Request: fold
Amino acid sequence: MDNFDENDIGTLLRLKKYEQPPPGYFEDFLHEFHRRQRDELLRQPIWSVLWQRLSDSLFRLNIPSLTSYPAAVAAVLVCAAVVSLKVSQGPQSSGVAMIDASPVVHQSVIDQMSSERAADYLTLSSVSDGEKEMRERLALSTRSLGPDLSRQMNDSAHTHRASTPPRYVLDRLPVSYEPSFKF
Amino acid sequence: MDQPRTDEDQPLVARAQAGDASAFDDLVVKYSPRLYGLVYNMTSNHEDTNDMLQDVFAKAYRAINGFRGKSSFYTWIHTIAVNMTLNFLKKRGRRYHLSLDDVDASIQNDKEFIELTSTTSPVREADLGELQRRLNEAMMKLSDEHRAVVTMFHIQGMPHAEISKILGVSEGTVRSRLFYANRQLQNYLDEFRKNPVG
Reply:
């Protein structure tokens, strides 16, 4: 008896293409595909859907191809490093700016104030160092609020001198006193 | 070798990438019978094949925007199917049972079938149905990679170059795997012919 040769094996294997799924299988396959797609969409969390759409839009922009360029990757890394460095040094540098700007603030505030108030302000400058620093911070913060508001703040600060008792003025009802329904 | 050949599916792919779902449906209709044969002959199980094929098209649908046309859509979708099936088979391990699909009645008209059953050959001496069953068992004894090559070459009729592109290996590796797999199958079937009961 002869043995199987390669041709026999090949022929037998080619006949396997006649092994087919039940009739109508391929007609139903597409419907099944659509059903599974819908089920998958309903099952996915919203962030996953959003992420998928975002990645799809990135694909359309061909951004992944840019990542293959080492220079682009290096540039992004350098930018990220610079930004993170600036963020980490942010509070320290603003402190330096505040100290440097304090004489300017003094001058501008003095220019805007009346001579009496300016004298008071200069008097206040002679108090203890801690309080002085606190008032400088206050002056600096009011500077950024604009001239009018800055003036109001300075007037308010003037009423809080140590020699006179604090005076509080209620110019508005607390929120809890307001009626909940307005007609 | 890597240069894109004329891809007849390109218009459908472009429409699918632009968000036309019906174009992707056309691709599913076109490729599902062929991919079914590929996956089925690698898994030898109808239910596994059905689930796998659904997953293959779902993955292709999600990734269609990333398809840049460096290969043909044919190669791309076959690569997805083969890789997913190989991963599935690794997870499944040896836990499987053969669930054979019916042999289509048109086999009676097949030229090779007629030759096979009319001429004197070891195939004629054996019961063809039993031989096919043994062949399926022998196929499942091959490694997953060897079975993939045998399926694509003998059953799907793909050339070596196409198989090498799909599997991402050299043509030499494809030929080597094919040679080894044929020898293995011959040995299994010869053993069956000499000892039909066992």
Q: What stands out?
A: The beta strands of chain A are 19-20.
